[in-house]
Amino acid sequence: MSTETRLGFIGLSAGAGGYGSGGSWASKSHLPYLQSDRNAGKYKVTALQNSSKKSAETAASKFGFTDVACYDNAQDIANSDVDVVAVSVNVPSHYDAVMPALKAGKDIFVEWPLARNLADAEEMTQLAREKGVRTLVGLQARQNSSVVAVKKLLDSGDLGEVLGTTMHGYGLIFGAVNPKSFAYGFPRENGANLLTIPCGHAIDAMCYVLGEMDYVSATLANRRPKFQVADGEGKIIGEDTKTAHDYVAFTGTLQKSGGVVSVIYEGGQNPSGGPGFFWQINGTKGAVVLEGAVGHLQMYQPKVKFAKAGEEAKDLDVKWVGDDFGYAVGEAWNAFAGKGDGHVTTFEDALLRHKMIEAIYKSNESGKREIPPAFNALLWHGNTITISAEEYIIPGHHPLAHLAPILLLLALDMRNYNHPKTYIFIEGPVLQTVAPLPLHTVFFVLVLVPKLHSNQAEPSLFTLISFQTVRTTDAPVLKREQLLSQAVALLAIPFHG
């Protein structure tokens, strides 16, 4: 009996993709992984859904899939005998493709952006929570080998405290000429634009490496509201207009280090012929630079140089995969299968990024600094840590489980602070989250539980403030039962579940 996960794919078509360059995105990224040895024993495509049944059948024949069911609508593939539904269609179509699968209780993959706007992303994420399904979002810049290497460098401490970071990218889209096949991205309200796609992927990688920002102060502009349109062969066929921005600029500071952030993304290509992507991170012990030809970090791998303080920059040891679009995507799929060293980026992660983008839009409109609701999840004031609240209550789970999101935030952040006595004040309802819990929260569970269950008037380590839940799968996991048994055994405390 096969142990492969049955995968139903929406949008794996044999036709031209959104940029008119040799096939759909799914056929250039997911397909190479799914048909490679890296996928051995993990996933099997058993269903396809495209705009028509004939289109799905054409794709099945072209890509060599046998014994696959073909559909022309999202409801039918959601009701089919698949374990996971993968959605790789134009952003404005995400909601209609995703919701039937979520309602059917299917685990799901969705390309980034998760949705065309924050409201849709929140609704999809909430339904995924209620259904208890596993989610994966195509923010695969986190799997880019160069990004992985830089994150390891920072985590090692070799860069020291982060003083600041500068990123400048060119997004190819929204230059002087744009492909007709990308017309769905011209209206800002469709959510497929310079800010959400190339810049969105890049700033997600930035926050994955450096942590979230305290605030954003943004300026956006639509400098080319009218432009030429080309067909799939690059021939100019007319003109069109857009409301989406082609210049993105914002600044702010990092929560963890207080480092200054400066990000600029422009439409088209670098007119000087220089690099299309540049990202520098300066620390107290040195600097690291990522530089590449194209500002799509989710697709193209930049080269990396590291300069220790007072020394010349040298190439960082990075696994080089070049422009293999299937590599980072495959790392995400492997991680979703519990294999490899990749990172599972969930709907929760995507929602956080959508809130960041919404804050950028709001800051541009208001002319003021904006602090997104999810950004102030972890703010220090003297020796008190404030963790903001968002409802995420799942009844029926073990009382210890509510600590996981708090502990995770603390585990990720305490490395950067040296408060000998930090107080957290408990306020509001007890929140609970689902298992499995990240392994690196165990230490904080073991430390905090006796303090929270003690009768001391003033706990010596922590006092708890209202908080927000944040889920992650960026670590090995430990089932709830294992966690509790270890906590009880190691602490030798009475527990009444």
From TrEMBL:
Transmembrane segments: none annotated. Residues 147-292 form the Gal80p-like C-terminal domain. Signal peptide: none annotated. InterPro entries: Gal80p-like_C, Gfo/Idh/MocA-like_OxRdtase_N, Gfo/Idh/MocA_oxidoreduct, NAD(P)-bd_dom_sf. Residues 22-138 form the Gfo/Idh/MocA-like oxidoreductase N-terminal domain. This is Uncharacterized protein. It comes from Lithohypha guttulata.
